[in-house]
Each structure stands twice: as C-alpha cells, then as structure tokens.
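pls design
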C-alpha cells in the first residue's frame, strides 16, 4: 500500500503543474496553436493516468476490470481529442464522469481525485 501511495504522489506531482500549464506559452500565438497545446496537455495527463493504472495493476493494486475501464477511457478520450479540433472538452468530461461511476468502489477511492484533477485541467481550457 505504501508503494501505491508513493506512486500516486508522483502522479500528483506530475499532473499538478499541468494545471498551471493549461494555457499555452507566450510563444504560441495562433488560436489553432493554443488549442493544439491545450489538447496536448490533456492527452499527456490522460497518458500519465493510464500508465499509473497499468502499473498499479501489475502490482495487483487495482483489478483487471478497473484497469481495462481506465485504458478504454484513455483510448477513447485521446481519439476524441485527436479527431475534434474544438468542442471535445464536454465529451471528455462526460467520459470521465462515466468512468468514475463505472469503477469499483475501491478504484473510485484510489483514483477519484485524479479523475477530478483531469476534469479540472479540461475545464480550464477555453
């Protein structure tokens, strides 16, 4: 359990700065560039979330079923973000809510704050 908590702490330290980086740097000046930068930040956060679930599963800290749900969400969310140039935010937030509701109570406890963190990142994108 201590190893799991340490792993999740690393995720928070990795994802936390992403929230403040949701706005594009000043060198990105076009609306398309800013949108692409923001989308990339969300895709990165989702990838970290997926990697953490896979790692936890290999240590038997999260079930195969919950891991499958997270990986399926991740693939779908990245596909949605990639296919849509704009307007993908509400679809990703809805998918995150559905994922959270579908996870086992144990996984909801372990990953609920990270799902909320990704939602916050997405909601911060205008």
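designed seq:
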């Amino acid at each position: 359990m201590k190893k799991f908590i340490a792993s999740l702490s690393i995720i928070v330290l990795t994802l936390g700065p992403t929230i403040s980086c949701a706005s594009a740097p000043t060198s990105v000046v076009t609306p398309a560039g800013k949108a692409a930068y923001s989308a990339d930040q969300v895709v990165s956060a989702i990838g970290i979330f997926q990697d953490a679930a896979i790692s936890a599963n290999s240590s038997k800290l999260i079930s195969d079923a919950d891991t499958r749900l997270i990986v399926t969400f991740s693939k779908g969310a990245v596909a949605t973000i990639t296919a849509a140039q704009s307007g993908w935010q509400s679809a990703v937030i809805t998918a995150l809510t559905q994922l959270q509701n579908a996870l086992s109570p144990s996984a909801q406890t372990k990953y609920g704050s990270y799902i909320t963190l990704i939602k916050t990142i997405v909601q911060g994108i205008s």
